[in-house]
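pinging the channel bc i need a second pair of eyes. not urgent but kinda urgent?? the chain im working w is below, pasted from the shared doc
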Amino acid sequence: MSSFIILTTTPPQSTKIQPDSTLPSTFKTFLLPALIDYDGDGYADLFSSVDDAIGSIANYLYIHGWKKDGQIIYDAYPNNVRKVFKPNKNLSKFIPLSFNEGGKDIYFIGDDNFIAITKYNVSHFYAMAIYYLSEELKK
């Protein structure tokens, strides 16, 4: 509980957060460096400020390699020489992926943005779920 209170009430640049604070190491390592006060009220508030929460998530992804014009995933067609993978010129990393959906094997290539999502949770299934959710939110 004390970690929650510290996280939600401490200004982002405050000296109150020390390496020996009661925040779990996950917060210190992954979350705190990305927190930003996007709405300008003096606090990076993930729970009461939609602007701070979205801004901090965007900053987290940026820190971990998010590319503005990245596509997240590309369809892949193994063993089909007519459908060669042609990456975006700004792509610096990619990862081949395969999933089984409804008994059918499907193949993708995850780009820098997919890899940025996996910096929060290493599961490729998690990252694909986030991708699918983002596609639904666009509708």
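so The radius of gyration is 18 Å. and Residues 39 and 49 are 8 Å apart (CA to CA). — does that match what u expected or am i reading it wrong
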